[in-house]
Amino acid sequence: MIRLFKVELPPKFEKISIRDYSSNNIKAFQTYLANTNLNSLFECNQVDTAVSILETHLNRYHDHFFPLKTIKKHVSFIYKPSQESLAAIRAKKKLHRKFKAKLQKVIKSNCGSCNVCNKCINAHLAWDEYRKQRNLTNKVTKNNKRENLVNDLKSKSAKNDLKGIWKSIKIATNTPAKTNTQPNVDENNITAEIMNKHFCEVGPKLNATVPVHRNFTYRDFLTNSTASTLGSFTEVSSDKINNYILSLSSNKAITDQLPLRVIKSILPIIIHSL
After folding, report:
1. Which of 56, 98, 178, 219 gives a 20 to 30 Å CA spacing to 238?
2. In this model, does residue 65 exceed pLDDT 90?
3. What is the 3-state secondary structure (H, E, C) of the chain?
4. Pair 12, 74: CB distance under 8 Å
């Protein structure tokens, strides 16, 4: 019996927007900063003012040199198809279109699905071909999911990421999220209100037991030394700043907009200003 059916589509991609920190954009930003006059920074008497001017100058052209771009990513790593899986899905869609075309010829012929004429036989053959490819696609997809899960668990095990391992297992097993259910509270259980009342009363009870010295002020607890404890400032060279910034991990964020790897690339240009 020939039936109409729906083909299961592969999981859709999720579109996200990210900044385009490509090497060409970074080079263009370097060229711009190299041709920019930063002498106004040396004329500032306040360090905070100079830092504010430098950040404003860098952030002003950040959106111009590093525009937003839209990329596609899978909703979950486990559904990321391999080349073999994509080829199987394309073949399944092709055979489905072929079966639909044969089925339309059977419907237009008004033979009543006699299963004897050439059109019905061809439709049955197309259905058999599609069914074999569908089963093969499901098998390849399952193996692909299994490989993705194993590779993800191996990488997280190497990093000793136990939290990530459990997260991957929950995704693979479709474990539902836990719901916060309120337990049955009776008179023998300690409720949240009792706990809150107890800790709210701790402060006043301790305060009542502490003796009050009304004849003392905070000046009586300070030392009478008038000597300055601030020594001389240590000179900071540009080499020290350069080595310190280069020693930081590129995954860290020290500004709100510019990533650290971009700052490292433009460091030779702005190092004297720093």
Report:
1. 56
2. no
3. CCCCCCCCCCCCEEEEEEECCCHHHHHHHHHHHHCCCCHHHCCCCCHHHHHHHHHHHHHHCHHHHCCEEEEEEECCHHHCCCHHHHHHHHHHHHHHHHHHHHHHHHHHHCCCCCCCCHHHHHHHHHHHHHHHHHHHHHHHHHHHHHHHHHHHHHHHHHCCCHHHHHHHHHHHHCCCCCCCCCCCCCCCCCCHHHHHHHHHHHHHHHHHHCCCCCCCCHHHHCCCCCCCCCCCCCCCCHHHHHHHHHHCCCCCCCCCCCCHHHHHHHHHHHCCCC
4. no
| pLDDT at residue 164 is higher than 90 | no
CB 53 within 8 A of CB 40: yes
Contact criterion met (CB below 8 Å) for 218 and 23: no
pLDDT band at 233 (very low <50, low <70, confident <90, very high): low
C-alpha to C-alpha distance for 61 and 69, rounded to whole angstroms:
16
Nearest partner of 61 among 251, 238, 266, judged by Cα: 266
Q: Is the dihedral of CA 103, 109, 110, 113 positive or negative?
A: negative
Mean pLDDT, range 143-155, rounded to an integer: 87
Q: What is the pTM of this model?
A: 0.41
Q: Please report, for residues 194, 201, 229, the alpha-carbon distance to residue 208 in angstroms, rounded to integers and kept in the order given.
A: 21, 11, 38
Confidence band for 267, pLDDT divided at 50, 70 and 90? confident
Q: Give Cα 245 to chain centroid, integer Å.
A: 25
CB 201, CB 209: distance < 8 Å: no
How far is 269 from 32, CA to CA, in rounded Å? 10
